[in-house]
Amino acid sequence: MSHALIIAEVRRGQFEERNLDSIGFCSLLGKQAVLLAPAGEYAIGEKSVDTVVRVAAEESLFLNPLNMITIIGKEFETRGKPDVIVFTSSSSGSELAAYTAGHFNLPIITDVSGLDKERSIFYKSYYSDKIFGEFRPAAGGPFVVTVRSGSFKEHAVEKPAAAGVETMEGLAFAGGRAFMEYVEEEKGEIDITKADFLLSVGRGIGSKDEIPAYEALAEGLKAVISGSRPVIDKQWLPKARQVGTSGKTVKPKVYLAMAISGAFQHIAGMKDSDCIIAVNKNAEAPIFQHAHYGIVGDANKLRDKLREILKG
Amino acid sequence: MNILVFTKRVPATQEEEIRVIDDGKKVDLSKVPFKLNDWDNYAVEEAVRIAEKAGGSVAAVSMGDAESDEVLRRAIAMGASDGFLIEAATERQDPNGRATLALNFLRKQALPFDAIFTGVQAEDDQFGSMGGILAAKLGLPFASMVIGIDTFEKDHVIVRRELEGGLQERVKVSLPCVLAIQSGINEPRYVSIMGIRKASKVERKVFKAADFQEGAENMIEVERWTYPPTRGGATMIQGDADNICKELLGILKEKGVFQ
């Protein structure tokens, strides 16, 4: 029986919710699901896969790409090769997936957010989510995917029987990379997750020189200012104000996104806001798919007009 | 420390409207400006800073068409001492193909290096895999999402990897190694037109991708290009600027965040 191999992401003793997307992906493909999971005390929801392999390596060893190829190599020896190896599309998942594909010389498709089983097609985003590519492995045999968080979890259904539990022991890791410690980001001057109204700016505003006028508008609207990743990377705003997967996840009453085109990593951090209003000069910007209200136009001009009105 | 940085010339599509053409066979990028991939810009900067501090040299490598020379000139203007172009007529979508091409190039040319840097991902394909595949094929240690390099010693580096939600992990990686550099790790220096003009006087070496093709066949194929599924979308606020502002303020009042 063909099977899928899922690599669990467990971080600081938590079985990450995005593992459900890996599990749902396998259900949708109709594959027996074998889950490789590190040592530790955490709940998996063992009814959602067919087999759980508890690997005698704690999470910091398990999430190390140099060790992962040893673990997967051993799994290949004992069970045989799977049809597909599934990783989360996260910092560690992506790192492990690429290294695994390179080591075992396997095709890889990353950030998969949809599939067409009949046509054996996997959808992958391109150009900041503006275009999708319909990809497939060129030949048969195992291939590697990373699955986008939130894309498949509703297909992760409970199975009638609890999973069989196996163990993998006697692993010898080669070294070359070692985990030292976790580092928490410094607390910023403000907690944007507490704000009711966020005025968020993106790279489309053009330059750092535009920021003071947005800050003035935010003050006039009694909103808190935040930004998307490029704005933080360019140091137009401090890191504490970043919305998105690598920044903060926010759920304000109103999220006013100005000149943010809406890459997935940003959407993931704000999609649960009560009301999303997007302003972008490009009518095709992905953010309009997630917004409740949209305005097509130049954000800087709209900002100036709003300030004019507020001055009354 | 000698560092090789892999760079890519990519279309700057963030603020552009792009179209699928030829029945899904092609994406029209003819009106889109091209530039150095953002992540690679950070990678070049980081490499140059290390070389400035610890000595050694930085060489930039680019795979692509003849116009990719542009990103090499830019890297040289930033402080790289060499530029290598692996010229290919067609663009490769498969990260395995690109990584194998890079592998064959490194082996045949026997370029000495202590570390290879790549960007975490290219803005166009967002695969984020080339560095990891190359590292595994070279049998070298690898770390991705590198948001800080704390120490750079003779035989190892200590780096911080960006995880999710503001968490990082510190890992020790033996040299030689491959590091995929995350955006925001530094503030890349400004490069003037004069600087690029000066850089173009430094000779860049051009190689033919055809000489490094062994085993670099594509392992995945694209059937078609399409648009992401639509999800209902937003209620659009239209009209002249005054009306739009009035309506917008009305919504803010209705939601109770503005009086």
Q: Taking strands numbered 1, 2, ... along the chain, how are they ordered across the largest sheet of chain B? A: 11-10-9-12-8-1-6-7-13
Main sheet specs of chain A = 9 strands, mixed
Number of domains of chain A: 2
**SS strand fraction of chain A:** 25-35%
Low-confidence stretches of chain A: none
What is the mean pLDDT of chain A? 95
The helix-and-strand class of chain B reads alpha/beta
**Extended strand count of chain A:** 17
Order of helices and strands of chain A: EEEHEEHHEHEEEEEEEHEHEHEEH
The average pLDDT value of chain B, as a whole number, equals 95
Going by CATH, the architecture of the largest domain in chain A would be 3-Layer(aba) Sandwich
Percent helix among the residues of chain B? 25-40%
At the first level of CATH, the class of the largest domain in chain A is Alpha Beta
Given the structure, what is the number of helices of chain A?
8
Q: What is the CATH domain class of chain B?
A: Alpha Beta
Distance between the termini of chain A: 72 Å
| Overall structural domain count of chain B | 1
The tally of strands of chain B reads: 15
Largest sheet of chain B: 9 strands, mixed
- The oligomeric state of the chains shown is heterodimer
